[in-house]
Fold each of these.
Amino acid sequence: MVNFLNALTSVPLGELEVGHHFYWQLGNLKLHGQVFLTSWFVIGLLVVASLAATKNIQKIPSGIQNLMEYALEFIRDLTKNQIGEKEYRPWVPFIGTLFLFIFISNWSGALIPWKLIKLPSGELAAPTNDINTTVALALLTSLAYFYAGFRKRGLGYFKKYIEPTPVLLPIAILEDFTKPLSLSFRLFGNILADELVVGVLVLLVPLFVPLPVMALGLFTSAIQALVFATLAAAYIHEAMEGHGGEEHEEAH
C-alpha cells in the first residue's frame, strides 16, 4: 500500500505543475523569472494601450481612446468616493495603477494560454498567481498610507499608535501591516484556485465544461481587482483622517 501511494504521488497530474518555478540567478539572489516575464508583458500591454489612446486625441473619443477614458473616469470616481472630493486627485495614479495592473494580470491568467509556452522548469501564469507579487502590492499599499497619514497629519499621525494606551503599540503596528497583507493573500488564493480548477477541468473534460468556470473566473478576477483598489483607497483615507477604515472593509 505504501509503495502504491508513493508511486501515485510521484506521477504528475497531466501537465499541471504546482510549486515549480523558473529561477533567474542574480548573484546570491534567486528571482522568479516566470513572474517577471508575465509582469513585463502586462506592463508592456498597459504602456502600449496608453500610448495608442493618447497618440491622436479626438474631441469625440472612439476605440482605444474611448476605452481608456472610460477606465480613467471609473478609477477617478472610485478614488473620489473612498478618499473624498478634496484629497483624491493625487492618489488617482496610484489607485489606477493598482487596479489596472491587477485587473489585466488576473485576466491574462484566464485568457492567455501561458502554459503553451515551455520553460526549462515551472510554467507561466498570471503575475498575481505568485504570492511574491501580491505581497509586494500589499507592501506598496502600506507605504502609501503611511506616507498619506504622515503628509496630511505630520507627527500627529503616530499618536494613534499609543491611543488609548501605549501598551497597544505592537498591536496597532501589526494591524497596519496585516490589513493590506490579508488583501494580498486573498487575491493570491483566488487567482491560484481559479487557474488550478480550470487547469484540472481542461485535463479531465477538455471541451465545453470548463467554459462556464472560465467565465466565472473572469468575473471574480475583475471583482478581486476592484476590491483591492477600493480597500487600498479606503486605507489611505483612514490614514489621512484617522478613523472610518473598518466599515469600508466590512462593506466589501
Amino acid sequence: MSRSRNIILASGLLAFAAAGLSFPFVLGTSRMRPVIDPTKPLPPQATFRGPYVNTGSQDIGPDPGRNQKL
C-alpha cells in the first residue's frame, strides 16, 4: 500500500509541476485579448503610479568605477 501511495503522490507532483511550468508558454501563445487595451486610456491608478515606480532606486547617476581614464 505504501508503494502505490508513493507512486500516486509522485505522479500528482509531476503533473502539478508540469502544469506550472507550461503555464507561461500557454499564456504567451494564447490568442486572448491583451491585458491592457491599447485603444482605451490608462486608468488613473496607472497614470499616477508611473513616475513613482522607481523612486526607491539607489543607482542614480554615473557609475564612479566605469569609464575611468587610465
Amino acid sequence: MISNLIAHSHLTDFAALEVGKHLYWSVGNLELHAQILIVSWIVMGVLAIATFLATRNIQRVPGGFQNFMEYALEFVQDIAKNQIGEKEYRPWVPFVGTFFLFIFVCNWLGALVPWKLVELPSGELAAPTSDINTTVALALLVSVLYFWAGISARGLGYFKRYIEPTPILLPINILEDFTKPLSLSFRLFGNILADELVVGVLVLLVPLFVPLPVMALGLFTSAIQALIFATLAAAYIGEAIEGHGEEEHEHG
C-alpha cells in the first residue's frame, strides 16, 4: 500500500501544473521568457531537421518522408488557394505554411513530450502556444501581414474598405482590426492551456487509463487549432487583397 501511495505521489507530482511560474533570463534591461524560447527553438529545430530529411535526396517519384512532407505542402497550398484565391495565393504559401507547421508542432510537442522530466529553477517547459505572449505575437504578425498585403496590392485605396459600403460603418470596421488579433490569440491560447489543465487534473485524480482518451482528443484539438489559425490568417490576407484583380482589370 505504501508503494502505491509513493507511485501515486510521483504521478501527482508529474501531473502538477505550475501555472503562472516562469523562468526568465536577463539580457541587459530585457527579461526573456526562457521556457518559451527553449521550446520554440526546439520546435524550429524539429522543423529544420524534417525539412532537411525531406529534401536531402529528392526523388521524382516521392516516397517515405518526402511523400509525407509533399502532402503537407499540398495541404497548406490548398488552404492558401481556398482563402486567398487561385491567382494571388502562391506568394503567401510560405507564410501560411509557417503558421500552420509552427503551431502544429508546438501543440503536439506540448502534448506528447513529458516536459515535466526537465527540471528548471522555476516553472516548467510547455507548448509555447499555451502562453499568451506567443499567441499574441503570432496574431499581431498576422495583422501586420494582412495590412501589408492590402496596401501592397491596392495602395492607399485599401483604406476605402473602412468606409464601404457606407461611412457609418467606419467605427465598426476599425474595431474589427482590433478584434481579429484578439480572437486569434485568445482562441489558440485558451484551447491549448485548457487542454493541458484538463489532462493534468485527470492524471492527478485518475492516474492510469482514463486520461488517455482525453490526451488523444487533445492531439486532435491541437491539430484543429493549427488549421483554424492558418485558415483565418489566409482568410484575412485574402480579404485584404480582395478586389485587386478587378481594379487591375478596370485600369487595363
